[in-house]
Amino acid sequence: GEYDINPFVMTSQAMLAASFILIALAGPGKLGLETIKAPHTWMFGISFLISVSSFVMLASMSSSTEATILIRTSVIVSFVLAPLIGRPFNKLGLLGLTAIAVGVGVVLLQTPVDILPKMIFFTGLFALFQALHFLSSETHKTNHQVKTFKQRLRVAGYVLAATALLFLIFLFVASLLVQTTHYDLNLLPKAHHFVSPASYLIAMVYG
């Protein structure tokens, strides 16, 4: 665009800005270091990262409507995994799941044979890691230890910071690969996107 901003870089910068604000509002105190050390924090960040990457791949191979239908498979996986965290099995939810399964089936049946295996792979990858994202947030140990509003802000801030940093590192590595291999998805950032003043400014506003 006019300011040459990459939406993924700007989003991760906005997440980082938001996390700094949350941590600053919370101030020093309990559960900060525990959150950084918690495996669930990093599982949350990595599962988010893989989910977003899978969606980008799906969007590059299909229309936005088709990609949106395909990522609803995560609802099916989350529904199946819900009993693992003590959630009751909702029989009414089966109607919704059937509708999602039919929609996904229709999209896949219309997909050209040459890209069908890739579509199925990235749909499955998204569904699995989006479900892990859901599970890690539901079972996050420090999140369940929260007793005050400031502690809630602190835990949310550190989880968001870890996720944003993972995302920025991934995007930076991806931008280097684009430059060395010349394989460009158009959506992936270039090196200059990471130092764009406009990107930082907008990220601060949205964050």
Describe, in plain words, how this protein is organized in 3D.
This protein is mainly alpha-helical. The protein is built from ten helices and no strands.
Features:
single chain, mainly alpha, 0% strand, flat
Order of helices and strands: HHHHHHHHHH
Q: Mind describing the biggest β-sheet?
A: none
DSSP strand content:
under 5%
- Structural class call reads mainly alpha
**Poorly predicted spans:** none
Q: Compute the CA-based radius of gyration.
A: 19 Å
Mean pLDDT: 80
Query: How many DSSP helices?
Result: 10
Annotation, overall tally of beta strands: 0
Overall body shape = flat
Helix content: over 70%
End-to-end Cα distance, whole Å, is: 21 Å
Chart the SSEs and their pairings.
Layout: H1 7-26, H2 32-37, H3 39-61, H4 64-70, H5 73-81, H6 93-109, H7 116-138, H8 141-144, H9 149-181, H10 197-206
Helix pairs in contact: 1-9, 1-10, 3-4, 3-7, 3-9, 5-6, 5-7
Brief summary of the model shown:
This protein is mainly α.
